[in-house]
Design goal:
Helix content: 25-40%
GO molecular function, one term: hydrolase activity
CATH topology of the largest domain: Rossmann fold
CATH architecture of the largest domain: 3-Layer(aba) Sandwich
CATH class of the largest domain: Alpha Beta
CATH superfamily of the largest domain: Alpha/Beta hydrolase fold, catalytic domain
Strand content: 15-25%
InterPro entries: AB_hydrolase_fold
Keywords: Hydrolase
Radius of gyration: 28 Å
Oligomer: single chain
Protein name: Alpha/beta hydrolase
Length: 554
């Protein structure tokens, strides 16, 4: 702990002078008294009195953090952290800790709770849990934390409902990192002054100043994410969404892992067929755990019901992006609008490619025999049809990462499992119902291959879209990212697979020509996004993301 605390002295002349603490003694004496209170607390059998002793220790040690000698400063900071933690453990032993800013009665003693730079998403009341008590099971024990001053905790709150941005927070709740400590009232000589319990956002305020000395604040960014993942129901909803379950459809949209920052670049992650954002847990954790990348990027997760044809899924995801920007940046002026990175796994990578592509007349002709203007139907049906088959590269995206993505289809879509999924997946697709109505109102307008046989309209689904010989897919495979959009391939190749594949997607289908980089790893289809080599590659791509690329002109 001592080695993990960064001290930054002010620019005044000479060494900092010992300050007076709340007992009116020097910093050195305060440290000695704090140590005495710690010894007293350790031998105090009464829980309430023990908590009081730890509080006195924490406040005295905090005052001692202005000592002139570096070793004394570090010892005081370490003791202040230790005593603050012991105080919190004591008062949380038999009850939950729920805080609001202002005067509160804790353990029979009034304290002044101060929220410092906590994110707006938490609201006015927060539930606190000690970060080191959170089991990191979902994240496979991977915890990104920084040693320093204060006690790392998770501040949690139910999602809000009173602002448009509330729809962009996960319904499981809001979980954010917090660092907590005790300090004496600014002027305890004044009647009514209470001890101060600080709850600080370590990401927004990474330093804590005492006198003219600043200390690095401890932080744990993984514990809040772990709590969100533990409460998520998306793992089973993803599969049920593929075969027609409606719950994931009600969850569909785009969700923020952090509070929106107009100056941070979004990394938008799109899951695959029958999957969910839980597939991104290790990668998201790694990005948030890298201090430099977390300062530059904000992570957004897309949730969609993966039961519809590929072009419909592209249109759905675009609608989620449009709705998100309408809430966050209605004027369209935020720096976050530019340099967006899309990361897609499996079918999500194909959707990412199509989001950055331009539709062509050939795509329309693969499905229809007449121009769009010749079709009859309701305005709503025709608008949906147009959004599915006519599109532009999505503005602001300039980098793509494809992970195990079947850019040229997958033969698995045609095997027995794929055929079973086809039969289950086509149910409850509103967009297909609209296409059916248009087909019925315009005899002969839809290509015969989509009306009869394996690909009849009623059975078009996400699975049939991944069959290499599906008529529309044969065209959308040719739609490449727009000029200026860099893309990267990360693919799996398992030993013993002939031809090479990750068990689902052939290597030849996962390697899109023209990529800025390609990485092949020994991993199966679902393991690619979780593989350490794949994660390291994505982090490297993000580090280089803002580096200008030389463009040669003919």
């Amino acid at each position: 702990m001592l080695a993990g605390m960064l001290l930054l002295h002010g620019c005044g002349t000479g060494a900092p002078k010992p300050s007076a603490n709340y007992s009116g003694v020097s910093a050195q004496d305060a440290l000695s008294k704090a140590q005495g209170w710690a010894t007293h607390a350790e031998h105090q059998p009464d829980q309430a009195l023990r908590a009081d002793a730890w509080m006195n220790c924490a406040m005295l040690a905090h005052d001692a953090m202005t000592a002139a000698q570096v070793n004394a400063e570090l010892a005081a900071a370490a003791l202040a952290t230790r005593c603050s933690r012991a105080y919190l453990e004591a008062i949380m032993q038999n009850t939950d800790l729920n805080l609001h800013a202002g005067h509160m009665l804790l353990n029979g003693r009034y304290v002044d709770v101060q929220f410092r730079s906590l994110p707006d998403s938490l609201g006015e009341h927060v539930h606190m849990e000690l970060a080191n008590r959170i089991n990191m099971q979902v994240l496979d024990g991977t915890r990104y934390q920084q040693q320093g001053f204060g006690v790392t905790m998770v501040a949690a709150a139910p999602p809000c409902t009173h602002r448009p941005v509330c729809s962009l927070y996960p319904p499981e709740g809001i979980f954010r990192p917090a660092t907590v400590w005790l300090e004496a009232a600014p002027d305890p000589s004044h009647a009514g002054e209470q001890p101060v319990l600080v709850v600080q956002n370590p990401l927004a305020q990474p330093l804590h100043s005492v006198g003219n000395i600043s200390y690095q604040v401890a932080e744990d960014v993984s514990a809040p994410y772990e709590q969100l993942l533990e409460r998520s129901k998306l793992r089973r909803l993803g599969w049920w969404g593929l075969i027609g379950g409606q719950a994931v459809g009600r969850r569909a949209g785009l969700f923020l892992l952090d509070d929106y920052d107009p100056n941070k670049t979004p990394v938008i992650m799109i899951h695959g067929l029958g999957s969910s954002p839980l597939i991104w847990a290790p990668l998201s954790n790694a990005i948030m755990g890298d201090a430099e990348l977390h300062r530059r990027y904000q992570i957004w997760h897309v949730v969609y019901q993966s039961n519809a044809a590929l072009l419909i899924e592209r249109a759905r995801v675009q609608s989620y992006l449009d709705a998100t920007w309408k809430i966050l940046d209605p004027a369209g002026t935020a720096p976050a609008r530019h340099g967006v990175v899309l990361v897609g796994h499996s079918m999500g990578g194909v959707i990412a490619r199509l989001l950055c592509a331009q539709s062509t007349p050939a795509l329309w002709s693969a499905a229809f025999t007449v121009p769009f203007g010749s079709l009859h139907g309701s305005a709503d049906d025709l608008a949906t049809l147009k959004s599915v088959f006519e599109f532009q590269p999505y503005a602001g995206v300039d980098e793509l990462v494809f992970m195990a993505s079947p850019q040229h289809g997958s033969p698995v879509a045609g095997d027995w499992f794929g055929r079973l999924a086809q039969d289950l997946a086509w149910h409850h697709i509103p967009e297909m119902e609209k296409l059916q109505r248009i087909s019925q109102e315009n005899p002969g307008a839809v290509q015969a291959s989509l009306i009869t046989g394996t690909y009849r309209i009623s059975h078009l689904s996400s699975v049939t879209s991944l069959m290499p010989d599906e008529p529309v897919s044969m065209v959308d495979e040719t739609l490449m990212p727009a000029v200026g959009v860099r893309y990267h391939n990360i693919a799996g190749s398992l030993a013993g697979e002939h031809p090479p594949s990750d068990g689902y997607v052939p290597l030849a289908s996962a390697l899109l020509p023209g990529a800025a980089s390609s990485l092949i790893i020994d991993a199966d289809h679902h393991g690619v996004p979780r593989d350490p080599k794949a994660i390291a590659a994505v982090l490297q791509i993000l580090r280089k993301h803002d580096i200008p690329v030389a463009v040669s002109h003919p």
